[in-house]
Amino acid sequence: MPSSENIKFLIDILYHSPLATAIYVGPDIRFAFVNHEMRKVFGTQENYIGKPFGESFPILKEQEFSKILEKVWRTGITYKATNCPARILNTDLNHSRFFDFEYKALLNENNETYAILHTGIEVTERNLALQTIKTHEQNLSLNNELELITHTLAHDAKNPLSIAKIGIETIKANAQMNQIERNNWLTIIDEAILSLNQIIDKTTQISEAKTFKISKETIYMDEKIHFWIKESKLINKVDNVKVIFGELLPLYSERSGVYQIFANIIGNAIKYSSVNINPTLTIFSEKQNDEIVYTIEDNGIGIPKDEIDKIFSNLQRGSNTLDHQGNGIGLYIVKSIINQLDGRIEIASNLGEGTRVKIYFPDYKPMDKEYL
């Protein structure tokens, strides 16, 4: 047994420790020791010695700290917590603070608990600082989102606007156009305006809320891809591209985002394969595990291998594309939208031989619980 002098020495050390410290004994968790720092935490100078923890601090008992201490006493297993909120009555103010603390079970030679050493430190200021940092990060994320919104409007809105303009100019220039052809052009203009409205609607929703819940629906791709190819041919003034189709599986995704992804990828494929004498585009889809994978392959100019990883960066283009119109925003937007839709994209290319793009979409079904 330690001498009384040694015990007094240890008690003096604990009392003057900068760490808030208390010692509890007995299955009813009675105070045996409380140092000055722990009294500051509790917010009172009342003498707790010999009193049960739960009786002394009913507000902490309500928060189940008493139950934790009782379990430590029964099991002999130490309990640690970090950044733990606690409401403590302090100068008549009931408020939440945050603590890192430990309830350490002290065991005898029979592995029975004879005391619990409670040490802790208040980290409320640290918690507030972390919350401030988190808020700044959220604001930065929002700023990045707004930057993407600006790029999206400036870039992708041009496609449907260009289509509508081409359609109107064509109808104006051909006064003798038959009704069937006129109706075809009016349908193209109507689809272009619908696409533009979807882009604007999505942009408005994102800009009005930090947390934008994506609305998903079944998209029948065999109906859409043919129209998007027609759009791209009109915009790029290319009409001799041979398109080979495989199976075009439906997607369960966000309509505007899917349009923006495919309009950019198909547009690039047609634009950069048009230099070939016989430009060819292959599009098909397949199921792989829990994903639907769309492959879009062209026989165009390709991408230098050492530049493939860079083309998803904002305003980055392949060094061999400078003779073609564009500003490098398209694939940056594509990658950002695919991330929003929980998908991914892979690009493989050989310079002068063409490019293969694989787009992976989660194979969600309308009855999945997440989307009910």
From TrEMBL:
The keyword rRNA-binding does not apply. It is a multi-pass membrane protein. One of its GO terms (molecular function) is ATP binding. Its main location: membrane. InterPro entries: BphY/WalK/GraS-like, HATPase_C_sf, HATPase_dom, His_kinase_dom, PAS_4, Sig_transdc_His_kin-like_C. Its EC number is 2.7.13.3. It holds the Pfam family PAS_4. Residues 152-365 form the Histidine kinase domain. Transmembrane segments: none annotated. It catalyses: ATP + protein L-histidine = ADP + protein N-phospho-L-histidine. It is found in: Cell membrane. Keywords: ATP-binding, Cell membrane, Kinase, Membrane, Nucleotide-binding, Transferase, Transmembrane, Transmembrane helix. This is histidine kinase. It comes from Sphingobacterium daejeonense.
